[in-house]
Amino acid sequence: MKSFRIVVSGRVQGVCFRAFTLDLAKYLGVSGSVRNLPDGTVLIHAQGEDDAIDRFLNGVSSGPSYAAVADVQVKETVFEKELTDFSIGF
């Protein structure tokens, strides 16, 4: 099990990026959360098995059809506790 902090920039707010991320995470069995940041980026905390995380990162690197992802910064974080769900934060 791995844990990551992901920051996605570009046209990623106001284009259903958080809902897309939630659906993708639930489909792949990834736990964590997603929220918009004041600077226009999207912050994702994701936790899951290697294959699921790889597929998840690939998906958020593209985003939904109206998004235009410019950059994805991924940082592996310390695994502190196992998360059981994925949620949208505000």
What's this, in brief?
The protein is an alpha+beta fold and 90 residues long. Helix content is 28%, strand content 39%. The chain has one domain (2-79): Alpha-Beta Plaits (2-Layer Sandwich).
Task: Give structural notes.
The protein has two helices and five strands, in the order E-H-E-E-H-E-E. By secondary structure, it is α+β, with helices and mostly antiparallel strands. The protein has one domain (2-79): Alpha-Beta Plaits (2-Layer Sandwich), CATH 3.30.70.100. The chain has a five-stranded mixed beta sheet with strand order 4-1-3-2-5, covered by helices on one side. The radius of gyration is 12 Å and the shape is globular. It starts with a strand and ends with a strand. The mean pLDDT is 95.
> Taking all residues together, what is the mean pLDDT?
95
Could you say what the CATH architecture is? 2-Layer Sandwich
Catalogue the unreliable spans. none
Most strands sheet: 5 strands, mixed
The largest beta-sheet arranges its strands as 4-1-3-2-5
Descriptive labels:
Alpha-Beta Plaits; 2 helices; 90 residues; single chain; globular; alpha+beta; 28% helix
Outline the secondary-structure elements.
Elements lengths: L1 E10 L5 H12 L2 E6 L5 E7 L1 H13 L5 E9 L9 E3 L2
Parallel strand pairs: 2-5
Antiparallel strand pairs: 1-3, 1-4, 2-3
Helix pairs in contact: 1-2
